[in-house]
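Hey team,

Filing this mostly as a record. A colleague (T.K.) asked me to run one chain through the structure pipeline before their review meeting, and I want the input and output archived in the tracker in case anyone asks later how it was produced. No errors, nothing strange. Just documentation.

Input sequence:
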Amino acid sequence: MDSVSQMALGAAVSVAVVGRRMPVWKAAAIGAAFGTLPDLDVVIDYGDPIRNMTFHRAESHALFWLTLFSPMAAWLMTRLTVVTGSFRLWWLNIWLILITHTLLDAMTVYGTQLLLPFSDTPLGMASIFIIDPLYTLPLLAGLFWAIRWRGQRGLNANRNGLIISTLYLCWTVLAQQHVIAVAEDSLLAGGVEGQQKLVTPTPFNSLIWRVLVITPDGYAEGFYSLLDGDKPIRFDHFPGGMNLYEALQDNWETARIAWFSRGFFAMREQDGEIRITDLRMGQEPAYVFGFAVARRDPAGLQPIAPLARRSRADIGTGLDWLGRRLLDADTPPLHRLAPPALTEPR
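Output structure:
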């Protein structure tokens, strides 16, 4: 999740655990600091954009390593603060802050390597978008009233914020399961052979869902609004560039993205570059993570140091599309909009 959400979650957890034994604002500040701690791995430069992407949410998000770290951090906090039953309480507080951080990240589509060092498989439920105000606002509201009201009334407000945000997470899982069922029926009715399927919400909401299907000859993309009722999902089909993948599958960078994306990737040739795109984050044709990994010359395909090649929709265009798609199942997908609506920073 985004940093604001993680700081708010860490602060709310800390207030719930130690808010009775120290000033609420101080408990919240400490919780916010520990709540953002695992994400500081983004400041590490691993050498190239693919390594930076795929090594994020690794050891710093692993349940095992965070559990080992929490008593050391608790010992430090006992030296810096005076709280009754200090060490055990700080141990519980810090462990809960760190573990809820990484479990929340695992609810998104990115991929969190929770089980290191025993398994490096990136886990992602994909039931919530990385920024969702309906998750974050109850936490912020609970913290605001906890600091303003103080006492038991304020602690109750913070508790209620945690309950509401957690119930919202449960809602996203239930909504996702409903869309999965609709997607399976739509694929069956349309005769689409799907080798892998991903259902994930579109930006900032849990009402409009994107369905991504890997097919034998590429991939298909469709959208479903919870207001669509029993209308089937319509899919658009795109080539996956598997001939390019077969030529470059021994290249470490190409294999790394294929692994990290759990098979939800595509390759294409553009401007003499061979590009690989993680299809999970974004929608056609605007994706957050794309990389040039090879170049074509007279001798054939030559691997190169990976270069970021991402495209994105103008935010105004994207928000306008979301608003129209929520209410109208016949709204054309984003990829049918005019090319000027897209930008491609290099």
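Quick notes for T.K.: The first helix runs from residue 3 to 18. Residues 66 and 98 are 7 Å apart (CA to CA).
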